[in-house]
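Anyone up for a design puzzle?
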């Protein structure tokens, strides 16, 4: 099965559409909601309605999606460019506009990606149209999701959830929360399951919203669960604890979300490169792709190096999404894409600030904002260091116990 990493013809209309939205609707309000942190961007309701219309009409596969489901049946002889590829390419375009606003889209939360990854058909239908945030991180741990201590205890037909979650993206605005909790702490990773908890459930409380370095348009919440009762049908995946399977069920979510976060970094970095090229040209520095870097202005040489790095991140992201579309295991590639794009996003945006000097550092342009926004993309959904650890384990065929 051969992979072609050119943008598929059938997705070009969607990508062009996303680019127009980013340029004409997101960019103009980008600074406004960066300054007005925690204020809901009302303009996004119009966009959400447009996306719903496209999805219902079938006119745009993957329109606005931040999470997609893999088909159960695929002809092994057929190469698919499906909803995963459509999602990462459209998400990258949206983040060319604004990362924080893209993360604030109604019904397009990271929890929706989790539902798309592991929910059964009945759950998919029941939670259709819901805006789902995802709650993993706790005060006692950062990137090591296996340390989840929020508990879920079965009591009759309901699970009783207790614990505290931090850094929940869209935690206040969402309709429901995908909560990672353990059925039995003594059984380790295998007992960690994800539950869909509806907002308004007694015992669920948004304690506060965080003030952040970047993505200020997106609300980031601390949420507590105190004897919160959810129907047992809201557990996603198997309720059985399979010690042999370990953490695989829960980690399947990340195989979908990590390429999406990588795409966010790719989009934000592209925005910085595009503007920097224009500003350098205005300053008399031309980027010449037909001449070796060492024969050009130092700023042009640096720019070429940044673009080459960016291209590597983009191709890894497309590969991870393409593999998901074609039902190939992509855990390694998802982590590689996230590690590369997360680092490149920070490197590119900060380097562009540096290349553009006082213009880059001031609020005259959005370069300083993109540098602030991009940092989170190297942190959430697993930090740079965690991704490198996962990649090393996969390449060396070692377990988490063998390589820490």
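Challenge accepted. My sequence:
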């Amino acid at each position: 099965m051969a992979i072609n990493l050119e943008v598929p013809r059938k997705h070009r209309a969607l990508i062009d559409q996303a680019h127009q939205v980013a340029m004409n609707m997101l960019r103009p309000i980008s600074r406004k909601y960066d300054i007005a942190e925690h204020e809901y961007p009302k303009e996004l309701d119009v966009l959400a309605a447009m996306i719903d219309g496209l999805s219902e009409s079938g006119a745009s596969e993957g329109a606005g999606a931040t999470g997609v489901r893999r088909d159960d049946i695929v002809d092994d002889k057929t190469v698919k460019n499906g909803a995963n590829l459509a999602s990462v390419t459209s998400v990258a375009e949206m983040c060319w506009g604004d990362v924080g606003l893209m993360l604030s889209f109604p019904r397009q939360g990271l929890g929706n990606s989790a539902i798309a990854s592991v929910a059964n058909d009945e759950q998919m239908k029941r939670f259709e149209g819901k805006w789902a945030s995802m709650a993993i991180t706790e005060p006692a741990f950062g990137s090591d999701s296996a340390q989840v201590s929020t508990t879920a205890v079965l009591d009759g037909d309901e699970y009783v959830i207790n614990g505290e979650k931090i850094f929940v993206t869209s935690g206040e605005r969402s309709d429901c929360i995908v909560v990672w909790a353990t059925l039995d702490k003594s059984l380790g990773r295998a007992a960690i399951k994800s539950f869909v908890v509806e907002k308004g459930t007694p015992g669920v409380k948004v304690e506060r919203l965080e003030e952040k370095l970047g993505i200020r348009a997106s609300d980031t919440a601390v949420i507590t669960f105190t004897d919160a009762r959810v129907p047992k049908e809201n557990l996603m995946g198997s309720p059985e604890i399979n010690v042999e399977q370990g953490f695989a069920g829960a980690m399947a979510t990340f195989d979908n979300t990590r390429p999406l976060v990588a795409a966010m970094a790719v989009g934000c970095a592209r925005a910085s490169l595009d503007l920097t090229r224009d500003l350098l040209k205005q300053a008399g520095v031309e980027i010449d792709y037909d001449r070796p870097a060492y024969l050009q202005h130092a700023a042009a040489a640096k720019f070429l190096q940044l673009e080459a790095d960016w291209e590597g991140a983009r191709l890894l992201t497309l590969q991870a999404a393409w593999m998901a579309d074609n039902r190939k295991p992509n855990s390694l590639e998802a982590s590689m894409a996230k590690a590369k794009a997360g680092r490149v996003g920070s490197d590119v945006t900060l380097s562009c600030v540096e290349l553009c000097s006082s213009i880059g550092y001031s609020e005259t342009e959005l370069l300083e904002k993109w540098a602030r926004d991009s940092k989170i993309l190297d942190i959430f959904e697993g930090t740079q260091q965690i991704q490198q650890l996962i990649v090393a384990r996969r390449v060396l065929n070692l377990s988490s116990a063998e390589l820490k």
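A detail worth pointing out: Residues 123 and 233 are 8 Å apart (CA to CA).
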